[in-house]
Amino acid sequence: MRQGKLPPDVLAKLLGGLSAADPSVLVGPQVGEDAAVLQLDETCVVAAMDPITFATDLIGWYAVQVNANDVAVMGARPRWLLASLLVPPTVTEQGVERIFQQIADACNALSIVPVGGHTEVTGGIDRPIVVGCMLGEITRGGIVRTSGATPGDAIVLCGSAGVEGTAILAREAAQELGERGVSEDVVARAREFLREPGISVVRPALAAAQVGVTAMHDPTEGGVATGLRELALASKIGLQINAGSIPVDPVTADVCGRLGLDPLGLLGSGALLAITQPDRTEELLAKLEAAGTSAVVIGRAISEDEGLHMIDEGGLRPLPEFARDEVARFFEEGADPAGDEGP
To answer: Which end of the chain, C or N, has fewer beta carbons within 10 A?
Structure first.
């Protein structure tokens, strides 16, 4: 099998075999949902788990961000973290200390408390791996699901496409970027994308939840295009997306253009899909702006039988589909302008 997420149809079949008989499980395992929700008396616990498997010099900090995102897009404030750290025998004690410090710094910045986890030096891996489990708290009435969008809703995108992937490429393939003609200044700027504009969507997600959004989703592997597909699958809707409205930072455009990658299929943490009823769109955009986040309407939800479409200068075409993330494609085989996936 190819690296990355399991294909949605395979995952749906596997999840279908899991029991969901416990009435306290309000949101269980489902393709497209970012986290589980468990009812506990008057409050609910939101639980999300994500591993960090790409090599990165900020892996501990990174693990906190992506897991906090998955809790926040459910409308809950991230509060507690458990993390499992697996390192190969080649990693030094100082290397482990750096990862712990990154986790601590990231948790402090988001007012999250680390409460446990596991550490292990193990064979069979060639780099550290961090698996995070983030817990948050919310009332039942405040839960936001990926599956809540309905035809007619406005599709809003906060941030821009491919922020996370741009940073990973700059940090892990700087030499290749230079050989492909990306300037040192652009590579340096791209490296900092993890922090500026940043991959956290906690602040905009919590702001959007106050408006009464119908759905939210955190695009990760497969980028904004895959995030839109997951949203549509979970909500059983179609989509009509305006390609020209999707923000792509010039740095991302330069990096992707040189490598033959599509920003819409590039690791997407740092972007947030927020869905709302048409008459609340302006309120949502104002709320996000007040939270310091850029956001634009990129399309609308349509009926499921109308399909998934994108409008560009060439007219109406199918929404791009990526069998794997563009970052994974690059690291596996390299890429060129005539790549075999995406538009």
So the answer is: N
